[in-house]
Structure formats: C-alpha cells, structure tokens
C-alpha cells in the first residue's frame, strides 16, 4: 500500500506519514470532498481479529463525536478490503515530541499555554465520557500556527485488546501511565491529568520526570515525588506536584481544576484521604506500647491512625489491643495497601509490621475467639482445687473465673475482627470516589450551621446531590466490571460526572470558609456549585 493507491473507492494516497502498533497513517486526497485528509487504517494482520476490528470501529465512532478545536477532527469511518479506516483532518506541523527533541525545553509561558490548551481539550473529552489513556508528547500535535491538537483518542483502549485481555492489559506508555493503572485500577480522567503533568514537566525540564528504560523501575519511581528541576518556577512546581501525586484522590479532581490552576487561579486543596485499599495476602499488625502521657491524650496515636485510614474499631478490639499490646489493624490486604497503612502508622508514631497471611499462627484465631472461656474455665478449676485442698472460702471459685476472664484480654483480637477487613477486590477507584464525595458532603453539612440562613438552602441542595452521587458510585462499585464498549463508555461518563460533583463540593467547602464582607460572593459560589452537581446528575440520568 503506497502513493497512488485508492482506499474505499475515494481516498487517493499521497504519502505515508507514519505507523504505530495498531495502524498506519497516510496523507490522501478525498475524491468526493476534493480536499486533503489523513487516513488511519488498521494493520492487515490486526483486521483479521474481528473483535479487535469491531472495537476499533466503535471507539472511533465515539471519538468522532468529539467536537473541540484542540482535538483532531475525525470525519468518517470506512472500510477497505476488510480493514477498517477513518479519515481525519490533515495537520501541518510537528508533534510535541519532535518539538522538544529539536528545540529542547520550552519557555515557561509557552509551556503553560500548551498545557492549558491540552487541558481544555481534555475537559471537553472527559465531559463527553471519553478518556484518552495514552496522552504523551507523541500524541500532542503542534501545528505550524502553534495551535495544539490531541491525537489518537480511544486507540489506547483498542491497543489493550492486543495484549492478553482487557482485565490484564495495561494501557498507555511507561513514564506517563498513572501509578494506579499498574495496580489494576480503571483509568479515569485523573489518569489523563497525571499524563498531562508528566508532559508539562517534560516541556519545562526537557526530560521525563521518571526517566528509565525499565517499566518496573518507573513504577517504583512514580511512588515517590519527582525530582523537580531547579529552573522550574514554584508556581509551576506546585501544579506538577499535585498533577503527579501517586494517589489520584490527591491530584486535581478534573480538568477544570487543573485548567484553573494553569490560568493562575487558586484551587482548593483536596481533603485528607485514606490510601487505596485492596484485598491481598498481607496483614498489618500494630504494636501499641502504652506510654503514660498517652493515657491523658484526647487523641492517642491509634485513634489518629484509625481516622487517617477512615476506619472504626470496636471497643472490644481496642481493649484487646491495650491488653495484648498487639493486634491486626488491616486484614488480608494487598502488599501495596499494607505498606501504605504501615507508613500511616509510622507517620503517627505507632509501630507496625507487615506480615504475610500465610504466617498467621494457627492458634491465633481459635484462642482469640475461645481463649476467654478457656482461661476462665482453667482459672475456675484452679480456684476450686485451691478451695478444696486448703478448705478456703468458696468465693475463690468465682474470683478465679473473673481473673481468667481478665487475663483473656491479653489475647489478640482475631484478624476477622480487624478494623479494616473484607477489602474490595482489584478495582477500588469507584469505591474511593464514593467515600470521598460522602466525606466532603458530611464536612459541608456539619459546617452549614455556621453559615447565614440564606446560604443554607444552597448547601442543602448540594448535599442532596452529593448523596445521590454517592448512591450512584456505590451501585457502580457493586456491579460487575463492564467489558463491552458501550458499558465502558457509560462507566467513563458516570465517573466524569462524579468527579464534577466532587469538584463542586471542594469549591463549596472553600467558599464556605470565607467569612465577613463577601457573603454575596459566597452565596453565588454555593449556588453555582449546587447547579453544577444537579446538572451532572441530570445528564447522567439522561
């Protein structure tokens, strides 16, 4: 296939532009519209896979609906000798990758302008329920007039089908893939914002934030804060730190937040959020050595740790911890979850260790459940023997039973009674999002009484919308993960709406903290946030 060939009876190929793992691209002349276009056609060997070819058509049909000046326009879907193809606008210029390779780091103002244009395009795509999943400088096109166009929306999800299955394939390029994707989480708009952060870093520093040829080494580096170049201004560094945070809950919630930060506006800080929790084969044990000064503290370390992890412990578990000095805090968690929980414990001065589930003592669960009765029975028998041999007072018998019961508090509570047990499976992103919305709504509800009466109605409407959003998120969490194209698109659309609502809640919380002199501004902000949340829910129901 080359210059002079005619595809689908209308596209006369002029020159080959390039090729990737999925398709090859040609400049062509459209004999029908009499204009020049670009043609992207699926490789012949991949077109033989009917499922893959159908997914290619479906994803391109979704992308075709995107209408934004910052996204390359897809015109029509066609087929040539069984190979699906689509026509799109023919661009003149270079990819951002080529610009950086040839010119080196950009001036901060130019880098920020390009980042803003990328962010605006992502905002439009996410609003339509489309996540790029493979944003990188190679997929950002800078035209001859310096305008920015995003390429290859939807193709990352198609590419995933060529690698194992959709459940095991990791979509994207190492160095730009958000860390949660390596942990098996589903990509949402915040993964695109992470990739934009990595691209923005590269524009400013002329190198990747996590430069390594080893994907596993990149994954390790991504869990740490990137080493920022000394030439990067502090206002840009603050944006990069937040965009590249390994925890998606601590990043910008949606593209509108990051766009505001890129334009110099202040963006509310995210609330403290428990680390992601997924099931696995590790326990976290806490070692609670009681210090005299802690006995009079209102919030001893174990209470602070439980709050930070978003967990609640029964009084029985706490008393057992006090008696035994050791207990399982997190039961049957993934290694990443266990290490994150242990790090939280260390942060608050509470000793903790990570233990494989396979190393649990076999007697631990049995003694924890029945040890109290056994010790009470043993001490009762001992007291009866003492009373019998020494002709002592029979009151020794109940006293012995009571002593045995008290001694049983020195036994550890079982892992099945840990504050964090029964963790979700592989993908907990939607559950975390639901919890985050609920936490924000509760904070807003608690602070409502401090607001003027005129403000409370807007807060009530926003809290109600947040409650509905939490219900939608929890319902999506309980359902089986979708695997069909339309179902995946609906899940992306739902997640986008939920992130909009979380953003509105953060803005409302920030506005509610403003006091004297700006009540009309606060009220207008609260009403706007309530309208955003309600509109997001209406669009989702439609």
Would you state the CATH class of the largest domain? Mainly Alpha
CATH topology (level 3) name of the largest domain: Transferase(Phosphotransferase), domain 1
The CATH level-2 architecture of the largest domain is identified as Orthogonal Bundle
The Rg value, from CA coordinates, equals 29 Å
- CATH homologous superfamily heading of the largest domain: Transferase(Phosphotransferase) domain 1
The structure class reads alpha+beta
Could you describe the 3D structure shown?
The chain is an alpha+beta fold and 542 residues long. It folds into four domains: 84 residues, Phosphorylase Kinase, domain 1 (2-Layer Sandwich), CATH 3.30.200; 170 residues, Transferase(Phosphotransferase), domain 1; 85 residues, Ribosomal Protein L30, Chain: A; 113 residues. It is built from 19 helices and twelve strands. The strands form three sheets. It has a six-stranded antiparallel β-sheet with strand order 1-2-3-4-6-5. Strands 7-8-9 form a three-stranded antiparallel β-sheet. Strands 11-10-12 form a three-stranded antiparallel β-sheet. α7 runs antiparallel to α9 and α17 packs antiparallel against α18. The longest helix is centred in the last third of the chain and has 28 residues. It is elongated, with a radius of gyration of 29 Å.
């Amino acid at each position: 296939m080359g210059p002079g060939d005619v595809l689908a009876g209308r596209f006369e190929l002029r020159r080959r532009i390039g090729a990737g793992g999925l398709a090859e691209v040609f400049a062509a002349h459209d004999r029908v519209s009499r204009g020049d276009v670009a043609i992207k056609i699926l490789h012949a060997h991949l077109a033989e896979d009917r499922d893959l070819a159908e997914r290619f058509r479906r994803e391109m049909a979704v992308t075709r609906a995107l209408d934004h000046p910052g996204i390359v326009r897809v015109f029509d879907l066609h087929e040539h000798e069984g190979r699906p193809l689509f026509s799109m606008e023919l661009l003149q210029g270079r990819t951002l990758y080529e610009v950086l390779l040839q010119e080196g780091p950009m001036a901060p103002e130019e880098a920020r302008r390009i980042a803003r244009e990328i962010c605006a395009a992502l905002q439009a795509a996410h609003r339509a329920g489309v996540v790029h999943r493979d944003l990188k400088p190679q997929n950002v096109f800078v035209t001859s007039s310096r305008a920015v166009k995003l390429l290859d929306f939807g193709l990352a999800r198609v590419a995933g089908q060529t690698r194992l299955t959709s459940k095991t394939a990791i979509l994207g390029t190492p160095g730009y893939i958000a860390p949660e994707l390596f942990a098996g989480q589903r990509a949402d708009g915040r993964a695109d914002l992470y990739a934009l952060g990595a691209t923005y870093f590269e524009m400013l520093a002329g190198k990747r934030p996590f430069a390594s040829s080893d994907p596993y080494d990149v994954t390790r580096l991504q869990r740490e804060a990137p080493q920022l170049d000394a030439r990067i201004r502090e206002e840009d560094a603050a944006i990069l730190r937040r965009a590249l945070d390994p925890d998606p809950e601590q990043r910008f919630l949606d593209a509108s937040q990051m766009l505001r930060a890129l334009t110099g506006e202040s963006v509310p800080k995210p609330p403290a959020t428990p680390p992601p929790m997924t099931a696995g084969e590790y326990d976290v044990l806490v070692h609670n050595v009681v210090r005299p000064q802690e006995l009079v503290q209102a919030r001893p370390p174990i209470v602070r740790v439980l709050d930070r992890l978003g967990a609640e412990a029964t009084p029985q578990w706490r008393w057992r911890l006090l008696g035994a000095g050791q207990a399982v805090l997190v039961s049957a968690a993934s290694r990443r979850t266990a290490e994150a929980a242990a790090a939280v414990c260390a942060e608050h001065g509470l000793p903790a260790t990570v233990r494989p589930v396979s190393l649990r003592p076999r007697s631990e669960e049995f003694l924890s459940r029945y040890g109290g009765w056994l010790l009470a029975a043993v001490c009762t028998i001992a007291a009866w023997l003492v009373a019998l041999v020494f002709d002592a007072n029979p009151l020794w018998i109940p006293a012995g039973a009571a002593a045995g019961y008290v001694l049983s508090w020195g036994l550890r509570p079982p892992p099945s009674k840990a504050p964090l047990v029964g963790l979700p499976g592989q993908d907990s992103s939607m559950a975390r999002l639901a919890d985050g919305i609920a936490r924000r709504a509760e904070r807003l509800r608690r602070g409502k009484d401090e607001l003027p009466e005129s403000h409370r109605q807007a807060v009530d409407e926003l809290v109600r919308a947040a409650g509905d959003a939490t219900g939608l998120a929890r319902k999506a969490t309980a359902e089986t993960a979708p695997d069909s194209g339309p179902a995946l698109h609906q899940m992306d659309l739902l997640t986008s709406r939920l992130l909009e609502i979380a953003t509105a809640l953060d803005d409302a919380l920030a506005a509610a903290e403003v006091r004297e002199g700006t009540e009309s501004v606060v009220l207008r902000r609260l009403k706007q946030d309530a309208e955003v949340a309600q509109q997001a829910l209406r669009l989702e129901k439609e």
